[in-house]
Amino acid sequence: MPIVEIASLTKRFGATTVLDGVDLDVAEGEVVAIIGRSGSGKSTLLRCINGLESIDGGRITAAGVEVKPSSLREVRRSVGMIFQSFNLFPHLSALENVALPQIVMNKTPKHKARANAARLLDRVRLSERAQAFPSKLSGGQQQRVAIARALALEPRVLLCDEITSALDPEMVGEVLDVVAELAKGGMTMLLVTHEMGFARQAADRVVFMHEGKICEQGAPSQMFDRPATAPLAQFVQSIRHKG
Description:
Elements: E1 4-13, E2 16-26, E3 31-36, H1 42-49, E4 57-62, E5 65-66, H2 72-78, E6 79-82, H3 94-106, H4 110-123, H5 139-151, E7 157-161, H6 169-184, E8 188-192, H7 196-202, E9 205-210, E10 213-218, H8 220-225, H9 230-242
Parallel strand pairs: 3-8, 3-9, 6-7, 7-8
Antiparallel strand pairs: 1-2, 1-4, 4-5, 9-10
Helix pairs in contact: 3-4, 3-5, 4-5, 5-6
């Protein structure tokens, strides 16, 4: 059984249909990169999976739980999300930012939460910055703290929404390296990304969204080298032109 199941998903903002009958299954341990032009529905899809946006039609099941208003707390125990902006608490250290979700959501004793936070910061190579406040961290370091925080609840699925888009180019690599390690470790991930080289290397499958629908999906080599639809061919060509 897929760990994420999306069937006939529809989402509207006013008169605008942002997601138009999306069907997508994700297997446990699979890394799926979601690509497409701005406004194609990519980020909205992730926000619907995590219950941050209500849906207007269809059904989403994540880690065996149907995503609906009454189940959001349970869903978010199993589905972590990392955003473009880091959303760290400025008055808390890196260690405290990672410990807090465990204390609030899981009622983990403070000393155990802090020990686990230290382990997670080591995992994202930030042990030496554990006591630093966000204002003293680079953008790449803040995003790595945000990754550690998302991992603190031991999610079965990790959603990453353009997590490098707010970073300076020299900081992108340090964040993508951490994500690549998670992928190799078997974490199920859905990544909305504009880093096509990373999508080619790290993803098991690439999903191309166009005008609120999944237009095409397949292995990275197939999608980037042999696109089967005109919208994807045009998208790939535009990327090559920019490069």
